[in-house]
Amino acid sequence: MLTVDQIKQICTGTKNPIDLTNTLNQVLPTYKIDTKLRVAAFLAQCGHESCQFNVLKENLNYSSTALRTVWPSRFTSDEMAAPYHRKPEMIANKVYCDRMGNGSEASGEGYKFRGRGAIQLTGKQNYTKFAESINKTLDETVAYCETFEGAIASACYYWTVNNLNTYADSGDFVTLTKKINGGTNGLQDRQKHYDHALELIDETIFTESVPNIPVDATVAVAVIVPLIVEDIEIPDEEAVEKDEHWFGSMFGFFDD
User: Fold this and answer.
1) Are 94 and 155 in contact (CB under 8 A)?
2) Could you report the per-residue pLDDT of 186-233, keeping only the tens digit for each?
């Protein structure tokens, strides 16, 4: 089993190490992410994607300038982008409409099914597939993905349907990164955490039963829902191009 001390060292800066450790210990084995190589790869990749499991819901608070960079096919002029400046709900409904199973911009489904989880589950179609896999309704699944357990479970689901254990088992960390990121953004940071995790995790990580680590009652409520940063403005220089080619690079999971 993973220990809190290991998680603190591997996922440096994580806000809720006890809750995170409990959740990982309970969820990872159910998705066969249960060996040293698999767990190390999962922690390194998902930790990078979610700022060490602190940011588990998509931040869409972009400026109009950034929108032209991030979604150039959706915002083809400054005039088109201006009304969406720093309006996350409007942005989500615009950029995610009419794809991934979502309805029109007016349907509101782009915002409802925006990215959630350690590897952001995005789009009504993908939420529906995940909901079916865990025997929950669509609305229940949206709410579930805003809990620590749901954020980890949805990432494990992505990991499973994309057969990422294969790359973890072979040690092909670069291909694994491409399968998750669509490229090799942040590869150095991912590799650093991966190497550190391999040093700390025991070969027999899940060969014994996994007990729950007690959570202080004064913080129990606070750690159920992950940190949300939608109100934080994304600096223009941190905008990441996320156009049709970006979605195409996700190897079919985020289907248009």
Assistant:
1) no
2) 999 999 999 999 999 999 888 765 544 443 333 333 233 333 344 466
* Residue type at 230 in one-letter notation: E
| CA–CA distance, 232 with 112 (Å, rounded to integer) | 19
Which residue intervals of 82-202 are DSSP H helices?
88-95, 109-112, 124-134, 138-144, 148-161, 164-170, 173-181, 187-200
Task: Tell me which fold the domain 4-57+118-220 belongs to.
Answer: Lysozyme (1.10.530)
Cα 130 from chain centre: 14
Q: Six-digit token pair at 34?
A: 């249960």
Residue 83 CB coordination number (10 Å):
10
Neighbours of 78 (CB within 10 A): 11
User: What does the alpha-carbon distance between residue 221 and residue 204 come to, in Å, rounded to a whole number?
Assistant: 32
Hey, where are the domains in the chain?
Answer: 4-57+118-220, 64-114+233-248
Counting Cα atoms < 13 Å in the Cβ hemisphere of 11 gives 33
Question: Is the confidence at residue 82, as pLDDT, over 50?
Answer: yes
Distance CA 153, CA 149 (A): 6
**Helices and strands, counts by H and E, the chain:** 15, 0
Of 100, 30, 84, 36, nearest to 247 by C-alpha is 100
